[in-house]
Amino acid sequence: MSEIFVLSETRGRVGLLTLNRPKALNALNDQLMDQLGAGLLAFDANDDIGCIVITGSEKAFAAGADIGAMKDWSYMDVYKTEYITRNWETIRRIRKPVIAAVAGYALGGGCELAMMCDFILAADTAKFGQPEIKIGVIPGSGGTQRLPRAVGKSKAMEMVLTGRMMDAVEAERAGLVSRIVAADRLLEDAIETATVIAGMSLPAVMMAKESVNRAYESSLSEGVLFERRLFHSCFAMADQKEGMAAFVEKRKPTFKHM
Ligand code: HXC
What we know:
This protein is of the alpha/beta class. 45% of the residues lie in helices and 16% in strands. It is built from 11 helices and 10 strands. Strands 1-2-3-5-7-10 form a 6-stranded mixed sheet, sandwiched between helices. The protein has a 4-stranded mixed sheet with strand order 4-6-8-9. Helix 5 (143-151) crosses helix 6 (153-162). The chain starts with 5 loop residues before the first strand and ends in a 10-residue tail after the last helix. Keywords: Fatty acid metabolism, Lipid metabolism, Lyase.
């Protein structure tokens, strides 16, 4: 039997995935990433789930790709099989919101994984970095692309070239994380936030996610047009009728997620 590296559970309409390789600070190997991908796809397909949280341990969200597993790979190994990188992109196919709840180290592939989530909630103990340069490589799962978009070129370049870490305060100031919470409240806070999102109309939430992501993939005028088309399509949803009627009638809406 293969080891369980990702624990999957539900909290109401929230799907929680916990990276569980504590002895290696959640170093990301192929099995772990396969299990994470499978867990994400299962929650995405589950009508009872409205938002997903990925978290790690107190000491590490994830300290990067598994260096021990990678050290003897050849170019042909990685090019032909796409080890590691192959199963990293599953998260980009997930249409429901995914929150990264980060405590401790989020380094290398761990930082890249957090940045692939829709937003990052950081414990006051969180430390972010792209230290690949120190082991003779460069980031391989979007770090050189997503970090500059999140924190600007100067800070991203310095971090990628020196491998230095950024603490939670610097990460919040730079816009990498949405908020800092006390470490002992991180999971509770992440679940609370995810529960708020999961209580909204699911199709509206999915459209909002899709539209914000467009900001990174298109010009402003294209993005605004995309948003307008989605906004118009909201008026085909039962949840739009219910949400607006509930406001006018001064009551809470009951969304049917359709
Ligand atoms: C494999 C790792 C690991 C990693 C930690 N461990 N990070 N194993 N791959 N990325 C293991 C250690 O070997 C050790 O195992 C145990 O976890 C505890 O780590 P320590 O180093 O003893 O802990 P500490 O002194 O507290 O230092 C923590 C740390 C350090 C600063 C996070 O572990 C560290 O620098 N880790 C490597 C970070 C890194 O370079 N990440 C980028 C990887 S490359 P034992 O068995 O000795 O107890 C990458 C490319 C992504 O991510 C490409 C994506 C496709």
